[in-house]
Amino acid sequence: MGASPCGGLASRIETKLSTDPTGEPHGSHYKLARKRVNQRRGAPSGSPPVTPNPDSPRGPRPGRSGDPGSRGFDWRDWFDPRRVGWLNLMLVFVPIGIALRVAGVGETWQFVAAGLAIIPLAGLMGESTEHLAHKLGPGIGGLMNATFGNAAELIIALFALFRGYDEVVKASITGSIIGNLLLVMGASLLAGGLKWPRLQFNRTAAGVGSTMMVLAAFGMLIPAIFYSLPEVLRVAREEGQDRRLFLEHELSVGVCIILMLTYVLYLVFSLKTHQNLFNPDAEEGSPDESLHGHGPGWSMSRAVGTLLVATSFVAIMSEILIGAVEHTSQAFGLSEVFVGVIIVAIVGNAAEHSTAILVALKNKMDLSVGIAIGSALQIALFVAPVLVFASYLREEPMDLLFTTLEVVAVLLAVFIARMVAEDGESNWLEGAMLLMIYAILAVAFFVLPGGEGGHPPGPGSAGEIGAVEAAPGDPGP
Predict the structure, then answer these.
(1) Which residues of 347-376 are buried (b: 16+ CB within 10 A; e: fewer)?
(2) Nearest residue to 104 via CA among 323, 330, 325, 329
(3) What is the mean pLDDT of the chain?
(4) Burial grade of 58 (CB within 10 A; 0-12, 13-18, 19 or more)
(5) Which residue, among 399, 384, 7, 357, has the nearest Cα to 166 in the 3D structure?
(6) pLDDT for res 146
(7) 64 or 5: which leads in pLDDT
(8) DSSP bridge partners of 124
(9) Which of 93, 136, 389, 456 is deepest in the core (most CB within 10 A)?
């Protein structure tokens, strides 16, 4: 049977549509369009097409091509310690701090040098722990990150604990919680929001973390309420102050056991049953790449060696730092509560703070918010109970009785963080508001009189004995 005229016409039309005047298959006009775009941007016509920068909402910026080697320097890179190298440069304060201690130079300078030295050492501890976690797999690796994520803060607090600085220890717990929920999250939202108009994150994961922080806040609130109950005051009056302290320590141990159990449940939830909520992009990474995305990962021996060396030097610097706390606070007129809430907390978390801001600049808000809330959870549910249990190795154990301002600060931080996390999105203005709230609390702790940093007046003090024993109608002393 002969070919149909209609069929031949259709064949010629199909052939015409499938080729262009140069004889190339249809679709090469996309290549021509890319060449014109490259020519308008100053690129040679034969150069490879310009690919959009995935880290920028508006495409590649001048001087920042897709090739990392030819990438220009941007002001945002100052937040990246691996780009600038300022963390490694700060390691020079390690020998400086040791030299100042050996030479017996002023304790204020020792405090400053030790504090600056702990920042890069904590960063090395965190990075080596992440590389070990990457090598050991998601199960054991996630457990390591959850356990050693705040190792630097724990080491500093242990040295303060066994030197008898209980108020500094409890203040550092408070400072780490409000620092992560207000300072870290606020700085991350501000930095990311200035680059990206809309910041989104998994509200389920953030909501779980912030809800668990409510439990941790209750763990701080209940001992403070219990200490002032009329029944407890009556026991103190009838049986003595020792009985009251015994009841307070019993309550603190019970609360710590519950907090630790809650932390175990949180680990099971985040690492096992709902791992996809907390690590949604785990499958996208290459096993041969560093977790930070800069070159190959470390070997097992390098990660272990770096962790051990960094931990050893953190212990040395912590001993110097805590040894100079009293002299430095007196020299500058600072209370122990302010030193613990602001200075010690920032020193121990500085490296982690920079990581949260860095990933926020890349619009990885799940990771950034997870760092802020997760670190606060580790402090409240793991580090605080460990410190209370460790205090039983000395003569007088530590309790969970915090000052009124500390309890109020934590409650406000948890409440505000819960409000930010509940809708799963944010912007730079909310970040700025979090920073303003942190600044207000910092001013309050700064002007707080030194005498307000300890326990409330107990029955052993003359003032409360008179108040408790005096009848309502008595004129008193």
Answers:
(1) bbbbbbbbbbbbbbbbbbbbbbbbbbbbbb
(2) 323
(3) 75
(4) exposed
(5) 399
(6) 60
(7) 5
(8) none
(9) 93
pLDDT on residue 162: 92
CB atoms within 10 A of CB 385: 23
Which pLDDT does position 366 carry in this prediction? 83
- The per-residue pLDDT for range 335-357, each reduced to its tens digit, is 888 988 998 888 877 777 777 88
Tell me what the mean pLDDT of segment 134-148 comes to: 65
pLDDT at 43: 46
- pLDDT of residue 258 exceeding 70, the answer is yes
- What share of the chain in percent tops pLDDT 90? 21
Question: Is 280 within 8 Å of 364 (Cβ atoms)?
Answer: no
User: The dihedral of CA 267, 269, 273, 279: what is its sign?
Assistant: negative
Rounded Cα gap, residues 161 and 389, in angstroms: 11
| Domain spans, the chain | 77-448
**How confident is residue 256, by pLDDT bands cut at 50, 70 and 90?**
very high
**Residue 206: closest CA among 221, 232, 185, 226:** 185
- Which range has highest mean pLDDT (85-89, 117-121, 130-134, 384-388)? 384-388
Residue given tokens 């700085």 in the structure block: 187
Which residue reads 């803060």 in tokens? Answer: 153
Q: Distance (Å, rounded) from C-alpha 339 to C-alpha 322?
A: 11
pLDDT of residue 296: 59
Write the pLDDT tens digit of every residue in 23-50. 444 444 444 444 444 554 444 444 454 4
pLDDT at 461: 37
* 3-state per-residue secondary structure call for the chain: CCCCHHHHHHHHHHHHHHECCCCCECCCHHHHHHHHHHHHCCCCCCCCCCCCCCCCCCCCCCCCCCCHHHCCCCHHHHHCHHHHCHHHHHHHHHHHHHHHHHHCCCHHHHHHHHHHHHHHHHHHHHHHHHHHHHHHCHHHHHHHHHHHCCHHHHHHHHHHHHCCCHHHHHHHHHHHHHHHHHHHHHHHHHHHHHHCCCEECCHHHHHHHHHHHHHHHHHHHHHHHHHCCHHHHHHHHHHCHHHHHHHHHHHHHHHHHHHHHHHHHHHHHHHHHCHHHHCCCHHHCCCCECCCCCCECCCHHHHHHHHHHHHHHHHHHHHHHHHCHHHHHHHHCCCHHHHHHHHHHHHHHHHHHHHHHHHHHCCCHHHHHHHHHHHHHHHHHHHHHHHHHHHHHCCCCCCCCCCHHHHHHHHHHHHHHHHHHCCCEECHHHHHHHHHHHHHHHHHHHHCCHHHHCCCCCCCCHHHHHHHHCCCCCCCC
**Phi, psi of 41, rounded to the nearest 5 degrees:** -90, 5
Cβ count within 10 A of residue 12: 10
